Each structure stands twice: as C-alpha cells, then as structure tokens.
Amino acid sequence: MPSNQILLEEPLRMALVLEPSKPSFFPATKIVGTLGLKSSSVETISGCLNAGMSVARFDFSLGDAAYHQETLENLKIAVKSTKKLCSVMLDTIGPELQVVNKTEHPISLEADTSVVLTPDQNKEATSNLLPINFSGLSKAVKEGDTIFIGQYLFTGSENTSVWLEVTELDGEDVVCLIKNSATLTGQMYTLHVSQIRIDLPTLADQDKEVISTWGVRNNIDFLSLSYTRHAEDVRHARAYLSKLGDLSQTQIFAKIENIEGLIHFDEILQEADGIILSRGNLGVDLPPEKVFLFQKAAIYKCNMAGKPAVVTRVVDSMTDNLRPTRAEATDVANAVLDGCDAILLGAETLRGLYPVETISIVGKISAEAEKVFNQDMYFKKTVKFVGEPMTHLESIASSAVRAAIKVKASVIICFTSSGRAARLIAKYRPTMPVISVVIPRIKTDQLRWTLSGAFELRQSLIVRGLFPLLADPQHQADLTNATNDSVFQVALDHGKAFGIIKPHDRVVVCQKVGDASVVKIIELED
C-alpha cells in the first residue's frame, strides 16, 4: 500500500532524505523518448523500455521515412522481447526555419561582425553568409529584432548557438550583427525569430505527406503538432486525420513553442487532446524570468481540463554527461510537483551518449517527487474547480479516488472501453496506480468488422498514473454485470506480478453495471 507519502508542509526529519528509496513500480509520471541516431538499435531501445520509456517519439525534422521506419521496426522487436508497452508519437516539422549548409563544414561566426541571412539556397554557407529555407524573413522582421540560431535540439550549453540582431533589410536578405562568437557544426541548424510571426502553415505539405504514408502505415497514436499557434491549427490537423481511416483516432498534442501559441493557449487547449510545453523555442521567445510562470500556469490549466501536459528540455546536460546538474534534477522534480503527466526527452535520447541512463535517472527523480506530491490539496483544488453539479462520470471518478484514499487501497482498477473513465480518475492524481482495463468493442463500417481497444490502450501510456491492460476480446463492451470475474482476476494478477497488490490489500474497482457506473471496495483474501 502507498504508505511512503511524505508531506513537505509537515515537519520532516532531514535524515529521511538520506534513506535509500524502496524499489517501486514505474513512476506515475511517464517518459517520452525521442528515438534515432544514438537510440535506434534493438538493444538500446530495449534498455530505454526497461528503464521506463512508455512513448517513442519520431521527429521528422531529422531523417526521412525510411530512416524512421527502420527505428520503428526495431522498437517493435524490443517491445516483444521486453514485454513492455510503448506508443508512437509523430512529431511534425511545421513552419521550422533552417540554415542550409550543404557542405556540412563548420562555420565560424565572430562576435561584433556581420552576417547575411539569404533565401538563396544555391549559395554556399560561410562566416558572412547563411542561406535559409524561407524567403519571407525580410518581410517578417525589422531592425532591432532578435534572431537565434541553434543546433537542432540545442541544449543551451554548447558553443554552437548564436544570437543575432537585425541591423539592415536588403531586399530578401537580412543583415545581422553577431552578438556572440560560435561555431556552427552538425547536421542541421534551426533559426528562431523572437516574438515574430512566420507566415507558413502549421501543417506543411511535407508533414501531410509523412502522415498520410508513414503515419497511416504505422497507426500512430499521437501527432505532435509543432508550432501550434491557434485553435484552428488543431482543427485543421484533426480534419486531415479524419480522412485517413484509423488515424481519426490519433490524438493531437499541440506543441506550444512561441508567444503566439501562448496567447491563444486557452482556445488551443480546448481543441487539443494534450499539450507539449516546448521550453526550448519558447525559452527563446520568453524572458528567462517568465518561463517558470508559463509552465506552472499551463500545467494547471491542463490538469483542470483533464488533458495530459508534457514538459520538455529538463536534463539537457545529460546529452554529454552521465549525471544531470543539480538545477536539472530539481527542474524534473518541480515539473512533477507542478502536475505534469510526462517528461519528454529530445537531444538527451536522440543524439545523447547515455539514453538509457537518462531515462532511468528521470524516472527515479520523478518517483521521489511523487512521494511528496500533496495529493490532498490537489484533490480539493480540482473538485473546487470542477464545481457542482458534476457530470455523472466526473462524480464517479472523483468518488473512486476519494474512496481509494480513505480505505488506503493499493490500486484502483477501472474497466473502460473508450479510456475516458480511467483518464478522469487519473485527473484527480490518486496516490496509488490506476490499472486501466480496456475492454475491446466490435465496430463496423458496414464493410468489415473490427475490434477497438489498441489505440485506447496505447494512448493511456502518456497519462500520469495510468497503467493500461487490454482485456481478452471475448469480454465484450461494457461489462454489464459483475460476473466478469476472469477479467478482474487478470487485472489482479497483473498488479501482483508487479508487486503493487498483496494479500489482504484493499482494491477499488470502477465499472459499469447495466446503465449504472459503480465504485466497489474489495478486500482481498490470501
């Protein structure tokens, strides 16, 4: 039973900090790992899954469909060998501006000298001239504006990032003053113009091509919509997915990366299935002292809406180092205490030297932070926000969590077909794991019969505290009576196998019986 909760608001013996952590189930907070480059082999991906990765992200800013398909096939092999569930997230390119360096030779930029940004991609990149992939930059910026150029998935600690100040507009060219010395090396450099709208579509043609081919082929669970700026961006992406068969079930996570997305956050949240707080680019747009404020406000809004919040850029230094900095370790913990559902690792697992170790340490920090998460205060805050009268399902979900805490249940078991009930339970952040038993449903389009359930199961893998299990297809639909002991027993066996359910534990069960939703408290025997 979850008896290791500690409240920081209460007197705490400092010696407790030194006590070794007890081995536990995977942390409630999920980990999204970006695969490729240094993390594409079956061996490394298996290590990532065993360390706690539950969502694999494929970023199409780097690599083509064939490259990512090879990595995904290795992921499938790793999933089978480790018996770990993992969902797939496709990250779009969007209106991303890039420096075009065809020779890939290092480019040295010296402070207090000038460099010209030109849309003429036929020109060679030099210390004084940088070709870019956008012809409208000179119309978007003005003298005095700030432009940032950083290595793809820049960590901020490299000497490969440069700040520029616009000094002159010359036709389609933009003349800039270099503010700091740097050397541009590596495969790709992205360009970010601070607080300026770039007139390019959020879902570009190349993104649509990738989604309609690679995405359809692999039944992607999540679409990470880069540079989401308006709610209409999400609606447009959803309309496009709805035309692509099973991808109508794909969840859209809006990636907030600039001031425009921040300003329209509330409308975007209403349309999206989840939010990714892209602190890399957003950290360029926002003053440093405002980044934490956005993070806390955005996560709170996501929590109250019951939609997953994903935080990025937490342990950048682990791209090259085996341990995070003290500030990074605290940053991970604070993201968990703020209420985030998942931590997204980019450069750390994509091109980092220690992808498995990074996932492991982020998981350990998350687990420690969860022990001091003030669930009682969070629960009261959420109930107050929801208000009265609650919807039927919201009332059942909050009651299940309240009952589980009062009787000190070791686990909540929720039978669901759409996953919605389980997500609502997770919204109230119970201190115990929620085993979401997804019951398949038979569907037909009048041409063929299909079973649902796989999408719903995998999409639970990004929700804090949810641990999904797919029921046998013979147990159909909504469990209309309480005779489905075999499904319940499978859930119990699953919990026992992971050590979270023991003899004489109490278990709270949430299920449908006929047209009614029921919360039961069961005390287990030997």
TrEMBL record:
Which InterPro entries is this protein grouped with? Pyr_Knase (IPR001697), Pyrv/PenolPyrv_kinase-like_dom (IPR015813), Pyrv_kinase-like_dom_sf (IPR040442), Pyrv_Knase-like_insert_dom_sf (IPR011037), Pyrv_Knase_brl (IPR015793), Pyrv_Knase_C (IPR015795), Pyrv_Knase_C_sf (IPR036918), Pyrv_Knase_insert_dom_sf (IPR015806)
Q: Where is the Pyruvate kinase barrel domain?
A: 28-359
Q: Which Pfam families match?
A: PK, PK_C
Species per Swiss-Prot/TrEMBL record: Acer negundo (Box elder)
Upper lineage is:
Eukaryota, Viridiplantae, Streptophyta, Embryophyta, Tracheophyta
| Keywords carried by this UniProt record | ATP-binding, Glycolysis, Kinase, Magnesium, Metal-binding, Nucleotide-binding, Pyruvate, Transferase
Q: Does the keyword Cell cycle apply?
A: no
Quote one Gene Ontology molecular function term.
magnesium ion binding
Q: What is this protein called?
A: Pyruvate kinase
